[in-house]
Amino acid sequence: MSSFLDLVWKHRLTFFFALALGLTWLAFIPFYLSHGESIPWFTFGPAVSGFIVAALAGGWSAVKAILASMVKWRVRPIWYLVAFGLPFGAQLASILINPLFGSAPPAWGNIPAFSEILPIVALYAVFSGPLGEEPGWRGFATPRLLANHSALAASLILGAIWAIWHFPLGLVGDLSLYGTINVVLAAIVFTWLYQNTGSVLLAILMHVTHQNSVRFLGKAFVDGDYVQQQWIGVAIWAIIASAIVAYYGTESFVRRPGARLAVA
Q1: Residue 181 phi, psi (nearest 5)
Q2: Neighbouring residues of 48: CB distance < 8 A, sequence distance ≥ 6
Q3: pTM above 0.85, yes or no
Q4: Which stretches make up the CAAX prenyl protease 2/Lysostaphin resistance protein A-like domain (predicted)?
Q5: 52 vs 172: which has the higher pLDDT
Q6: Residue 6: its pLDDT value, please?
């Protein structure tokens, strides 16, 4: 048992990524292949994997660190503005820019009323990714990647695996090239947010806002105009990610001397 725990400790990120992919894919792919349809996407795979590997490799103290980051709300107010405003602003900007490239005017009436969206968003926050993913991606993987990699390299590694994690959704037509690229770019922005707050809670809020801004504001367009608007959104996220790297550098994404690791 001791040798197994030593192995998990030595290769904890490998175990985490393999388990996160396995728990999600093994529930989804076999059922699809045998029945021609999918069961609900198991969005809790990364979180469950993070807690399992943290417990095996670091014990209660490692698990407690993730839990503490999930309820860490005392951060500078500007970071709440970033978590909510940046994804929403990027999506809104892509909508306003889209007609400049030949799309129809946005059909604002297609976007549901806020009172209708709010309860659905609450359900999506729990069952559609944010709560099930962020404790794993940001709470477990990010600080451990940062121990041996620059913030940019850690973000790109995690972003690539995060994108791969979504691949089985292509079986049901719920995967796009622009969405895949956006995930990798978003990983840079999420690392920046986490590095400056040490809060998985803020990452969850940004995930909720990003996901649902696309889901609901995107209804302003249909067909080719929608696809074009999403590519504009990708370009905006690329600009945001590039600005972070240009201003903060590649090492830590934090403007403090010697800063490297996320505050966990």
Answers
A1: -65, -40
A2: 19, 23, 136
A3: yes
A4: 119-210
A5: 52
A6: 75
